[in-house]
Specification:
Strand order of the largest sheet: 1-2-3-4-5-6-7-8
Bound molecules: 3-methyl-2-oxobutanoic acid
Shape: elongated
Order of helices and strands: HEHEHHEHEHEHHEHEEHHH
Distance between the termini: 51 Å
Structural class: alpha/beta
Radius of gyration: 24 Å
């Protein structure tokens, strides 16, 4: 893995990156995936609540808790990546009171080691976002196809395809920008709308299923590497099939076990010959 030292990425640095090279963001949920993301040069590692789907094998993100997110965020921050670590706020951690929202965001920072948090939604989340920012925690916004709204949306559907819905998303993006988020994820929206929003706001936009005219891109680690369940959304480009490589490797291990080829001499611990002889002579079964 590449391990050149690089400067720590901060939320203000991400905010200032608008108009520069495209931002590189990927999800990670544990130490190995965080090391891979960081070695590849990620600007931002998102400990996404997509952990529910790609790690915990659940159908929706609605099942993960603040405790789950703290647990995974701690694993990622523990490798001390140069990338900015963003902890995703799970469903119902910022939907009740402003006080609980700040307390939950604080847990992701204090216990999980997150350097910023992300939460879904536009204008109706502004009081929560302002309170979290008031506690000195940088916030990343997330609008469009917001998976925590799966039931309200009636499924995972591209958002903002009609004029009124598109205008509502532009208003949401403006409100997030005015509130002071340091970046905005645009998920599952038409390219023209994503481009309009990107021109409209000062915060960099990071797209996932939002076309190319945004300030950065994010993909889910397991989707990009072929470690999923085979269902690949249209917007994903799969860069490797690590699932296939892994099955082949484990199959070879099992074959070697059955052939008696594993472990070999070099993979075996030994004791000094005289100890072995003494031990074997104790053994009533030994010659
Ligand atoms: O949880 C997640 O992985 C996300 C990304 C899709 C942006 O929110």
């Amino acid at each position: 893995m590449r391990d050149e030292p690089r400067d720590k990425v901060t939320a203000p640095a991400v905010r200032a990156a608008k108009g520069g090279p495209k931002l590189r963001m990927i999800t990670a949920y544990d130490a190995p995936s965080a090391r891979i993301a960081d070695s590849a040069g990620a600007d931002i590692i998102l400990v996404g609540d997509s952990v529910a789907n790609v790690v915990l094998g659940r159908d929706t993100t609605l099942t993960v808790t603040v405790d789950d997110m703290v647990h995974h965020t701690r694993a990622v921050s523990g490798v001390r990546p140069a990338a900015l670590v963003v902890g995703d706020m799970p469903w119902m951690s910022y939907h009740v009171s402003v006080e609980d929202t700040v307390r939950n965001a604080g847990r992701l920072v204090r216990e999980g080691g997150a350097e910023a948090v992300k939460l879904e939604g536009g204008r109706k989340r502004i009081p929560m976002i302002e309170a979290v920012l008031g506690a000195e925690i940088p916030v990343m916004g997330h609008i469009g196809l917001t998976p925590q709204s799966v039931h309200a949306m009636g499924g995972y559907r591209v958002q903002g395809k009609q004029v009124e819905a598109a205008r509502a998303l532009i208003a949401d993006a403006r409100a997030l920008d005015d509130a002071g988020v340091f970046s905005i994820v645009l998920e599952g929206v038409p390219d023209v709308l994503a481009e309009l929003i990107t021109k409209e706001v000062g915060a960099p936009t990071i797209g996932i299923g939002a076309g190319p005219k945004v300030d950065g891109q994010v993909l889910v680690f397991h989707d990009l590497l072929g470690l999923g369940d085979g269902r690949i959304p249209k917007f994903v480009r799969q860069y490797a099939d690590l699932g296939e490589i892994a099955v082949a490797a484990v199959t070879r291990f099992f074959e070697d076990v059955q052939k008696g080829d594993f472990p070999a001499e070099a993979e075996t611990y030994h004791m000094p010959d005289e100890v072995a002889r003494a031990l074997l002579s104790d053994d009533p079964g030994a010659a």
